[in-house]
Amino acid sequence: MTKVKRFTYLMLLLAMAVSPVVLAQAGYSQRAKEIGTHLKCMCRGCDMSAGLCAHPGGSFSGPCDTAKDMLKEVDAHLAKGESEQQIIDAFVAKYGSLVYMEPPKKGFGLVAWLMPIAYSIVGLGLLVFVVRKWAIKPPPAAVVPTGISGAAPNEALERARAQAARETED
Amino acid sequence: MDVFGSFTLLLAFVCAAYAFVGGIAAILTRHPLLVKSTRQAGLATCVLIFIATFSLEYLLFTDNFSQAYVVSHSNRDLSAFYKVAALWSGQEGSLLFWSFLLSVYVISVLIAYRNKNGELMPYVGVVLAGVQIFFLTLNNFVENPFKTLAIVNASGMLDPFTRMDGNGLNPLLQYPEMVIHPPNLYSGYTGFTIPFAFALAALLARYPGEKWIHLTRKWTMVAWCFQSLGILLGAHWAYAVLGWGGYWGWDPVENASLLPWLTGTAFLHSVMMQEKRGMMKVWNVWLVFCTFLLCILGTFLTRSGVVSSVHAFANSNIGPWFVGFLMLTMVVCFAAYVKNRDYLKAENMLDSMISRESSFLFNNLLFLVACIAVLSGTLFPVFSEWFTNNRISVGAPFFNKVMIPIGLAILFLTGVGPLLAWRKTSADSLKRNFGWPLIVGVVCGVAAFLMGYHDGASVLCLFLCGFVTWTIVMEFYRGGKVIAARTGMSLMMASHELAMRNTRRYGGYVVHFGMVLVFIGLAGAAFNTEAQKAMNIGDSMKLGKYTLVLQSGDTKAEKNYTAQRMIVEVLEGNKQIMMLYPEKRQFQGTEQAAGTMVAIYSTLREDLYVVYAGMDPDTNMPVIHAFLNPLVKWIWLGGVWVVLGTLLALAPNRRAVLAVAGAPQTAPSAIAQALNPGVTLREGHD
């Protein structure tokens, strides 16, 4: 990141922190709310992010006090000019890894991200393997009824008809 | 009534145990009387479970507050409608309800096949009795719903004790959908027991051929339909009641209900491979085993609270029982497979990579990857705690990122699969089949972009929706045209006739179309916006093209709750279009005392979703929280089509002969066309 870019970014953050975007009654900024969507609300009563906490079943279905405090904390970090990643790191240091909404792409959390990719690759590999194995083998006699040698021709025809019906029914 | 209920449950357990042990003896000795008596015991088990369930409902309806379960989940003011639902709103009751629904299936199977499949049915009976024994063990000895309240008196003895009133039903559950969502979902969970029982029985009995698949085809579809409907109703409940503006939060319990749905869907497709081509026999058996195991796992996750969730209503000690049952089932399945695996030899081989067969393989791959990804994501917090002593939470953003590509790939296959021929597809037919759908897809994608949906995944999704829809339209059009030419019917009538002649295939297409609608709805989620504002009377707020004006507020007292209601006028420009009445309900005598009633102005384009969040604790002003959620309505419409499609697929095929006989005298040209082998072959084209 160039100096100029970093400066603009800082100014932007600063502008956001002090701008009228601060929700008048809520006491936190829109930016804090955005960052808050990456942090889990620590009230232990909902499974939602601090930014989107609606606290189902509570007497107030908006952000609960815990979420509001977290968002105000985000604002405090923003005022110090910290980046989104720095803020998330600060929260993890404070609350532990429970505060993540999605696993971090480092350490053990990376495993979570690699798992689906691994399944897809292994699955695809297995599929290709199986298909090739199936394709190499010559089709067994059951597929193409060669009834002329063994059974009577009529019977073979009947079998072929039954197979055709079975395979084209739907 | 409580002693009676308790007794019938115990008797049911004894009957199930007899059906199980006697059934094994019957299989070994083949004594006809033993076979008959174990079958009767199976029937008796079901009837006794019905009686026990009705006893609990009776206690709920008669406000018998000497009963622990009634006290915890009902009160005098609760309306009758919700007293029915109280049956499955707690741990003990919902486990009894599981047994109840399973018994409905079991008794239907036992009666439907009473004179058929004599070789197989004793095995099926044993497997079903085994599953029933597990749940009856829980009902009787672990989570008995018929517990009486008692207090310790002065002499240290227990005295029965009756409360004046109960605690009432959890307000989150006091919503019409909560009365139909759990029965649907549970009917899905329990329904997969039937194909499981037949698959295991066929394997144990070395029952010839594909018969078990033919026998269970409709049962699987019924279970699948209930499961789909249950999931969608649950999503709608979350949307309309929880007041957070969304319908799917990747909550562990939601995930648990999705898992068997994914494998069940894979199974519904891969059975066709076995029916048509005699392939994938081992795979199908394992797929249905896994579906059943995932149903049990789902019940376990819902009921044990092992992963935290809004649904885990009770944390309890039933976990080890479920783990034990899962292990036992796995061992039995594996042992049966190892012993009799030679009977599952495939008959046919794959001819080409570009064929219907391979599209089914890819379909199964994607559904399985989706299933395992959701499963491992759901359990990841537990893993991370094991390995690192640190619980890493996995929330909605993770699942969205992982599942969107998989979902889109599945949607793509939905369009491609049916256009590929069995065995081998020529490049020529690919061109012929894909040209128009691709054009329609592109038009839809571009239109979506021009309408302001600027998000890669959403545009791709809408492109695919157009593509898939057109492939389905073409399937109906082609088949319909042939029948129209043969019989002189109009194209509409002919398409109808076509669907009735091969209900499973065309019912399947209708389900696919329903899923397309659901995907259209999901594509809208990227563009949700929201606004929240503390407002005085007369204040307004803007959201999208709408202006919300708070007109007034009032309070109305209902039987068991007091509702605070806000009256919000919705304006579009200067034109008034709607009055919305979001509510906050304060329930009496419950621990969790508040509920929301969301007011939704729903159009095909978007939902205006307005929540009265309550009084702002700081300013004491009413807070209105409004969401603008595009395209949500399509999801619910899609659900309707999915159900209609399944019903069509369940209907018996109409014989072509009858239809031709009933048709008006065909014109000579039509007869000529009917005799033209080119046209006749097209009808069978697949």
Structure overview:
- The complex is a heterodimer of chains A (170) and B (686).
- With 170 residues, chain A is mainly α.
- Chain A folds into two domains: 3-99, no CATH class; 109-168, no CATH class.
- Chain A has helices at residues 3-18, 30-36, 65-79, 84-95, 109-136, 153-168.
- In chain A, helix 2 (30-36) packs across helix 3.
- The two termini of chain A are 59 Å apart.
- Chain B is α+β, with helices and mostly antiparallel strands and 686 residues long.
- Chain B has three domains: 1-171, no CATH class; 175-425, no CATH class; 527-634, no CATH class.
- In chain B, a hairpin with a 2-residue loop joins strand 6 (561-572) and strand 7.
- The model of chain B is unreliable at 309-314 and 658-686 (pLDDT under 50).
- Chains A and B meet through helix 5 and helix 6 of A and helix 10, helix 13, helix 14, helix 18 and strand 3 of B.
Percent helix range of chain A: 55-70%
State the shape of chain B: globular
Largest interface, chains and sizes: A-B, 58 and 80 residues
What's the end-to-end separation of chain B, in Å?
A: 59 Å
Count of extended strands of chain A:
0
Provide the succession of SSEs of chain A.
Answer: HHHHHH
Domain count of chain B: 3
Structural class designation of chain B: alpha+beta
Q: State the low-pLDDT regions of chain B, or none.
A: 309-314, 658-686
Q: Helical segment tally of chain B?
A: 22
Range of strand content of chain B: 5-15%
| Low-confidence runs of chain A | 11-24, 139-151
* Main pleated sheet of chain B: 6 strands, antiparallel
